[in-house]
Specification:
This protein is an alpha+beta fold. It has three helices and eight strands; from the N terminus they run H-E-E-H-E-E-E-E-E-E-H.
Length: about 130
Amino acid sequence: MNGTDLADIYRNYIACLNRQDWAQLGQFVDADVRHNGRPFGLSGYRAMLEQDFRDIPDLRFNIDLLVCDTTRAASRLTFDCSPKGEFLGLDVNGRRVSFAENVFYEFRGGKIVQVWSVIDKVAIEAQL
């Protein structure tokens, strides 16, 4: 697999998230996926994403930057949304905030097996 193939898979994964097409998530995410070093498995990863959409009803993943090689992808995702209550320990309570998430992914067999994610909490704090 080359970087272009991986970029296409990644873009389709983000489209799946934005559609909240949870039945198709397993096409992109491995059954034994890990997130920030924790073994989530596909069901735990899906539960995390479903909770994100419950907490942030207008959540939409936007790819701002994407770099891929044959087994890894690095992405800067941007968000402009209104979390319902507390988000990252901050009382957002429906206010619109914009922030970025820097995410690194490791792929095996065309599926995500590892995710490392950091959200720019300082950007959110500056808006509150």
